Fold these 2 entries.
Entry 1:
Amino acid sequence: MCRARRSPADPGSVAEEERRVKANAREYNEKFQYASNCIQTSKYNIITFLPVNLFEQFQEVANTYFLFLLILQLIPQISSLSWFTTIVPLVLVLTITAVKDATDDYFRHKSDNQVNNRQSQVLINGTLQQEQWMNVRVGDIIKLENNHFVAADLLLLSSSEPHGLCYIETAELDGETNMKVRQAIPVTSELGDISKLAQFDGEVICEPPNNKLDKFSGTLYWKENKYQLSNQNMLLRGCMLRNTEWCFGLVVFAGPDTKLMQNSGRTKFKRTSIDRLMNTLVLWIFGFLVCMGVILAIGNAIWEHEVGACFQIYLPWDTAVDSAFFSGFLSFWSYIIILNTVVPISLYVSVEVIRLGHSYFINWDKKMYCAQRQTPAEARTTTLNEELGQVEYIFSDKTGTLTQNIMIFSKCSINGRSYGDVLDLLGHKAELGERTEPVDFSFNSLADPRFRFWDASLLQAVQLGNPHVHEFFRLLSLCHTVMSEERNEGELYYKAQSPDEGALVTAARNFSFVFRSRTPKTITVQELGRAVTYQLLAILDFNNVRKRMSVIVRSPEGRIRLYCKGADTILLERLHPAHHELLNVTTDHLNEYAGEGLRTLVLAYKDLEDGYYEEWADQLLRASTASEGREDRLARLYEEVERDMTLLGATAIEDKLQQGVPETIAILTLANIKIWVLTGDKQETAVNIGYSCKMLTDDMTEVFIVTGHTVLEVREELRKAREKMMDSSRSMGNGFSCQEKLISSMSASRLTSVLEAIAGEYALVINGHSLAHALEADMELEFLETACACKAVICCRVTPLQKAQVVELVKKYKKAVTLAIGDGANDVSMIKTAHIGVGISGQEGIQAVLASDYSFSQFKFLQRLLLVHGRWSYLRMCKFLCYFFYKNFAFTMVHFWFGFFCGFSAQTVYDQYFITLYNIVYTSLPVLAMGVFDQDVTEQRSMEYPKLYEPGQLNLLFNKREFFICIAQGIYTSVLMFFIPYGVFADATRDDGTQLADYQSFAVTVATSLVIVVSVQIGLDTGFWTAINHFFIWGSLAVYFAILFAMHSDGLFQMFPNQFRFVGNAQNTLAQPTVWLTIILTTVVCIMPVVAFRFLKLDLKPELSDTVRYTQLVRKKQRAQHRCMRRVGRAGSRRSGYAFSHQEGFGELIMSGKNMQLSSLALSSFAARSSSSWIETLRKKKGGDSTASSPSGGADKPLKV
Amino acid sequence: MAVNYNAKEEADGHPSGVGAPGGAGKSRKPDNTAFKQQRLPAWQPILTAGTVLPAFFIIGLIFIPIGIGIFVTSNNIREYEIDYTGTDSSSPCNKCLNVSWNSTPPCTCTINFTLNQPFETNVFMYYGLSNFYQNHRRYVKSRDDSQLNGDNSSLLHPSKECEPYSTSENKPIAPCGAIANSMFNDTLELFRIDNETRIPITLNKKGIAWWTDKNVKFRNPSGNTNNLTALFQGTTKPVNWPKPVYMLDSEADNNGFINEDFIVWMRTAALPTFRKLYRLIERKNNLQPTLQAGKYSLDITYNYPVHSFDGRKRMILSTISWMGGKNPFLGIAYITVGSICFFLGVVLLVIHHKYGNRNTSADIPN
């Protein structure tokens, strides 16, 4: 599709060192041969498909091995099987894989086509022309319109907005949904119309293509001036233009060179532990194969020397073979060929098919479908399913994963009275769930219809004109950094940096204090239906240390007032001491709110004298323009003014949990899965959520909080925590040597689990600073040990990298399967590091989902994914592998025994067609059906008894021991399979007197016994006989006999006498009662011990799943008790905090007016004020009135070098 | 207007798997079918004492009578076996021990023996070979079934598999290959000695091969003549054979490739010790047994050398039953397995009663 292009991977081309792009000069740019904007994610086309795909497939060791066998078979002295016994399975496997690859590639072609054929407007020869994306070249100037995707990496030249500003959404790039501002450099921002743009002949010299999304450095040369370019001037492919009517951009990187495409590298291929075990076992089996080959080759050499040499009168040696030794050497390879079926090629394909089936079941699961978001669960990786049944550690993000990231204004305390409790008719607090009607806000045309509040008394207070309540909501409507947008009259949209703030402003809005619009200098509030414009004098912005924010406004009456909201711990200290009583009441309310897991804020105000303010503002101006110590000076000034405030009240915001989070966590904990929360949030918030989702409970013996800032502090805190655990477990009487155990068991994970069991319930909370120290090489083990001994671990304020490090740490030392779940771009590293990554397809974009192996939209689906799908997948895969190894050993080892009776000549026992078809036809489908459909207990039971999950974690169902049992059973079967017919056939004759023990009859008898025995065995292994299982098992037997008779029929023989030598054999042999007696005997002898053994195991030492299954059978109606989740309000410690997730510095941005474009769009429509007029005012004022302008405003000035 | 853009596809180059291509119009809600929701009705067998123990007893109770039946039947079969290899110096055939393929005149020897019990029903006469590896890979494949099926081109161009017995003196060998070349060619004749007179016993040489072999698998080359000599024109005899294939027998329907001795030989044995049907002795009338008790003599034309590789040659006379010839193994095996099953059943029953978890539902930890 794409024309041949220069790509960095081309060995011929020199790596690009810098990129030169000249606008409107296609010929000039042509000579650099930059990649065009055509992207190609597909790997093949029709011509290259076969060779390239085959080449790729033969890079797989297994495929190459079979190819090698195939080549061996072409040597006549070695060939012990016909060529087709290997080539048919090989071709089948290659075909299946090729078809899969082809379908994948077809879809890629389709999506490539779709993307490449999108239309964009390109400026060619002075006119805008519609062009397909793929025809856009580097150096073209293209026009983008609102809500369009950016076609390539562009240098923003100009836009419809003043100052060349434009807004983009980068959700596709980094998953962040908030808008970002990009700005054209001033010289080009004037190029508003096409004629000017057509004249533009600037040249950009910049860095070569790379994958750094947030970095760009280049220079624009135009009209003999140099202008520095940065990422601020770039629009990247994949972004979407928002709130900007149009903009023009110069294509700098196109197609595969764009940052988006440079970032879409292949993700690391994850393997499951079963995969690794399987590979080890396959290697062992190869070793075993070679051993058998060697034994038989030695046997052959001896035989040829002792017997074969004399037998030459009837059977001379091949011409090339001159010694018994050489014959033995050849027979080694011959045996390698016929014994290769111990590791059949179909193993890998079958495993993939089963996993694919499981993935489809996940995709199809109705109970993991989220109706609200219309997203079904999706298994994005099809190769990890059984690992879902072995998870021991879950690392969870908080925001968006455990919580919905929706903040709800839940309660408030105003002037000593608490509002927001749901009261029933008698005035008692009502229980959750039996809520009455929410408060009706219909009188207020500007109200947000989604807002719910249950306490009508607050509204009454507003309507009655309670001044405190009015002041309370006035504060909420003024003191914030929210931007408003009014698309149509009365349709307000708030754009809040943090959802908490949005919730507060929305609450004020519904209670008739509607924040309507803002300019850098004013805030317009619709107070009880009357528009009031406050003059915004200053925003004292939020930061981590201050934990509060304030605004200073001048009301229309001219009164200057400071409104402040912030964390209780900080704010309560800064109140005027006069209001002691109110403070006490409010504190009680705060405790109550915190006890319910709500996030609280305290609100206060202070009136400022005009003179005082003037003086203060003056100092502020000087401080903000100071070159040194600006931050300190500002902080001191803020501190000074936010003092002696009057308490207004407090708000309580509910950080809404995702549905079913506490229940899910409880069940997963019961399943012995440890859950660690890794969050970027603050400690208070994280702990709060920890309590509300029942990870932390008040029943816990202790919650250790590690907040040390130095290595020593952290080490000390960890040590103390451990000591406490030791002490208590020692006092419980059985921890006598725990200390030593702890030290010695640093790497032996199982020992520590003993420690965990006796240690009681502890939890660990650690913050980012301490974590950084704890993750250092000399302390990581201490940290891990302490953390693993705790029931719950919460790491707060962690960076994405630390998230990955924590996961890596557990992976490294615990040898346990880890699962990371998250929804945001900051979880990507952790998702990629963990064995299994789960993405929540929620609101924070799709970055996490793209990096994940599984995705769904609700945290609660995790329990179903693990306890039902994971558990079944693991069970099925284990059963499948056990049976698969068994059946192939039973099948193949017969050749080994036969070797001792045929002069070690590598003569096969079976017909060559049987060997060809055994694995791919006769025995494949029943075991596949079992691998796909089997269930030991129903899904309800898996949820009811989370303990059923444990065998997977301990890896009990398929490990080396189980493998050897399977192998032993296979070998046992093969021995009987050979020696029983041998015993029968040695002297016997048929019922018509003719010879019974001819080779072909023997082959048919052994083959038939084998098929019957392995069918009975799969019948025993299958625990869940659906119609499909019945069909496959009986069908396989039927197909065996059908093919047997067909292969032995006259017709085929007449056509190919040399290929179908067994003519007439089936009907002759299978008509013999002796043969059937032999088959029955073999079957019973092979199966009987297995049944006896399994029965004994079930009877004497049943697994939990057996017991559950048995109970299910006996008492179908038995209803096991559900574990009740207690929903008890927790009285106790106060955990509140100014839990705002927004960034510092936003206030400054507002004051500078730089981000005003959003609201100005809205303003222009309703306030009849030109959107640019106030910007003009602002510009005029600039320089003089620099209270509002910030140093970052300097970006407006051209940077002339 | 927003462009329908699936960023997922662009960002990782993969189509997003299942259900995604449907787009907005189609609901992405999974179908509520028993199959997709893994709720297919199913039979869930479980090994309980109620099923396993009876099974063991039933198997035991069925196997033991069958075993006894087979054992008795097998014991009622008359079988007489003579090793005539001649390794023992006292054996009359000792002189022939080192014969070669084409020694002339052929070495003959006579072995006298006595049947103590009469053989009532039809008697089958076998030759048995030991330490003869008819199942060796190179041996087994050394034949051309196409040629044996009468294919004229294969007749003149035998398959490579027949090497080194595909051509001799620049002429194709018919039948080619090591199997045909090594065909057993001793002649055995049986006489009853009645008062010093040797009464020859009629040995039937037809009806000893499978019907399918004789009529489907093996066919003489076709042509516009019935004269085998002409049909085999251009071929030569196997190296070890004294006579070409078209002179194996005088009867036209037992000559050439469809000679039954030849067909029997060509059906290679599975094990290095084997017996092959040589002749039939049919019961003349119902009044007297096929072979009375008494003295017999076996005349052997000793052509087939086996001594060089420690092979043995035997002649076996046997009657058969519904389940073929004498086969003590099967009967004993059935009795043994039946007994073991029964015994195991008892043991399991005892264990189950003493230690079994009968009240299993009680100990499900919650």
Entry 2:
Amino acid sequence: MLSHFVGMAVVRRPPASLSSSAALHRRPPLPRPVFSYPRSLFSFSSPLGKTRICCSAQRQALFNRIAPIYDDLNDLLSLGLHRSWKRMCISWSGAKKGDRALDLCCGSGDLTFLLSQKVGLQGEVCGLDFSREQLSIASVRQDLYWKASYQNIQWIEGDALNLPFPDCYFDAITMGYGLRNLVDRQKALREIFRVLKPGSKVSILDFNKSTSNLVNTAQEWMLDKVVVPVASNYGLSQEYEYLKGSIAEFLTGKELEKLVDEIGFSKARHYEIGGGFMGNLVATK
Amino acid sequence: MARGVFSLLFRTGIGSGSGGGGGNGDVFGKLLSDILVCPLSRQALRYCPDSQSLISDSIGVSFPIINGIPCLVPKDGKILEDQIKSTGNDDSAGADSGI
């Protein structure tokens, strides 16, 4: 749960070789701009101070560092509750036997494996993530915790902002602790909208940015007094300090509902779970 | 596309994690090219068995398949070295440029 920072699909500046004039003269140029990022995200003078993780490369490096102890920390910090939240996320997605499903920002595969069991051998599941390291872990877990249904999984290294799927392709989409970490959430949601079949749903689980002062205070206390100290035992306190600022910059449930409504989803509902610490957005195309 | 294709591939020894070697790899690669599209142009991909990669002819970029996992992040793409165009662009020698 608290370690699910993977799959932040970000766009990057191309290396110099692509932009060299020699390369451009030899062949047609790639669509421009291929990689871009909001300038505001690169400011280091944020009120969040040193905890602000700005550029995409830093984020990816952060998530790669926490990858090895990721799953263990999930269990420890949520006392195992993250498993029930993820089951709820799957249930809300409406995935059923024979469906074609997508788990975005799949990380080490928790939601992918649940989807796999839900859709069965006549279904298909794509687990997509930006991080090769996380997909490697997912692949190892696939073998380690083997269930027959896991045959229906295909791992894909990909960008949530540029999905490699045709329009109207999936019967269900899930995303766990990924949306908050994407540099362009609107674009990611538009891509989700594009690849969903009409009438199908996306179910997005993440931290809840609450409008209740009580919940916010409790959440901050939890992060400051429990999460970061525990993470520091693994030498990762700085990586987890990122969380508080990340949640503060996220959208509230109402804001998320409004965003998906503007994109064109026919229905949207944000459910608060886990005592208000977590939230699950369900949107129908 | 028929349902349950990933499972079918797995049972025949092909699929994610298999490495996609030899003839089985060709089946796997062909399947991937049927399912996936170019992340940038959203046009069809073509499987190249020699380089074991997925080619986006629309933008002249190839994406590798590594350990059975297609790598379709835009930065993973490589500009094709010899792109044959009907407009008659010259073929160019030299190393691939990474994106």
